[in-house]
Design a protein that fits this description.
Largest sheet: 10 strands, antiparallel
Oligomer: single chain
Structural class: alpha+beta
Shape: elongated
Amino acid sequence: MRRRIGLQRVLAIGAIGIGMGVTSSLLADGPPPPPNAAKAPASYYAVTQAIADVTEPWDQAGATVPVEAPGWRAFFDALKAELDQYSTVKTDRERLLSLGRIHRMDTALAGVAWAPSIKVQTALGEWLAPRVKLAWAERRLIDFVENHRGDSPGSTEHALQWKRFVDDDLGTALAAYEAAKTVQARRVALKTLNRVLGSLKKTNQSLAWPLSTELQAAVDSLYDLPNFDVSADVASVTPFLSNNVVVSGPIYRDGYVSEVTAGPKTGFALVPSDEGIAFSNSQLASTVTPITDFQQQLQSDRRGQKLAKLYYFTAASFDQPNLTITAIIRPSTGLSLYPSYAHSVSAAFNALPIEGKGLGRAVLAVIGLNREKLTQKVHDQAIPKIASGVVQGANEESAARIPVAEAEQNAKLRKVLIGNNTAAIKDFRITDLSLRSRPTNALVSGKVGHVTVPEPMGADAPKPSSLATPSSGVSADVHLGSALSNAVAGLLQNAEIRDVTNVMIATKAVEPGASPKDGITIGKNVDFANFLKVIEEARAANNPKVTALRLKRPPTAPEFGTDARGFLVIMVLDFQLDVPAPPGAENGGILGAKARVLRFLVPSAEFILSYKVAGDGTKPPTELDVKVEDFVHSTNSKVQTIFDDETEPTTMGPFQANIALLGFKNKLTQVPIKLPLTSVEIPGFDLTKISPLDSSG
């Protein structure tokens, strides 16, 4: 009976959350993409790239082709055909059957010890494993609810809710993602997936059910991965994490005063940990502690009472510990410290004769117990207790000091590590924060977002194998599309930007060698009259580098993605831009009515950019050369001409509008964009390399 009640509660709560997901996942996201929109890479592009790396050398003139080449070509063609088939399946059953066929091919590759095939098998395994994991998670959940239909009132309907969620909501979203041919279509499918995943997360937050939690983790591992991954090698973190752990000075404890002298550092190391960044610092020290009540201790001991009547004993303990502090910085709780000691304890004793007790000392001397012998006996009997006391005192001192030190450091860390596995840097947030360490490097990963974006998107592709091995120094791997989309969406919500309706960018000629920013003036919320004045000033300069344009803030934040060529795609809905009309247009002409300004109204626009780092690679990069490769606009785009009143525009005919749009595109693709990197300053570090953008983003 308990099991039936438990099942009913799980399914009931699940049905509420999943029901919300059904509606939201069917919403459309903006207008359809342009017919020539940027092409999205296939989700399995790494596999086809690995195949190309194997087969393309065979096609080179004069290449030595192995006798097995025809067989391998046939196998690779069959694999690519099956991967293509997987991207077009519509139902859960078809998806499982396709995965099964691909899995058999993967197994066949795993049994071959040929280096080129190993590269293909590695790429295929990385693509296949998370999808098999997701398929099994779906199947286990559906099998469970199907097998428990009728266990309790309403459980049949709840089972159907889960089945509809897995087969329809999640299955439809997965199919749309895999089948997406354009960057925009994939972005829409990814949003739908995130909404479906969001409803599943709400369900799991209400009641954690192992099967639905497993399903969430499987979807996360495919489409909501960290978009920010930093590695810092030992040499890079040493200046920040290698610190002294001993401070010279007196320590007062239990009536004793120990004088501590700091010694040399004996080590720093990163410690393997998946809980946080763990590291250890070791340092030698020396301590001297006069035991001011040693005579009283001797008098309280039955065997020492006689000696205490003959001699006044003094003692001091000496220790040369090697103190090691192991620290772990965890993403939610902050810093924890764990001390350990390697003690080397000794002691010095002195016996001062007590006046009037000479006869007793003489009697003991006759039987060989002179002053030196008695002092040695006292040493031998007292040293174990003294050593134990030194160790206990050190532990007690650590127990008192460690919480204070942790509190001081965590007060600073909490400005960044704000809890809930989140780091805050001004208005930016890194959520799902993971801190890890290995003997060679410290690792930080998470999802870059903004304080105003509660559910930031993660990466929808794993890190490519080309970035698997960190570079020396500090290397940051960023999934550019999701990170930029999250950041820009957040920035547009800032109070300073939220009230901006338009931005005017005016350029002017600058002296050679001047900073590019000196040639740009940016104005906010510029009215049309003032915009016309700037246009007239630009025309009077008679310099092609001097111009002005006015960009209207879009109602929704631009989004970013990467196309199959590895180009950055900026997608803007309801793009509106005002630019100066061509010379002579104020008198009318081929573009239609008299015009001083052209206004482009593009419901769906794509700006496709490439970049390369200036220089030969032997010196730190100083400039990023950006090129607009293409401007793609939706077919229902319009161009308006405006003379002196923007409330009375004239809409061009389709022929003239296409000419204007083509001219705008040509202008964009011909204008060089140079971004100086000299302003990228990180104290203590130099920028050494920027890699090309991978098709994964």
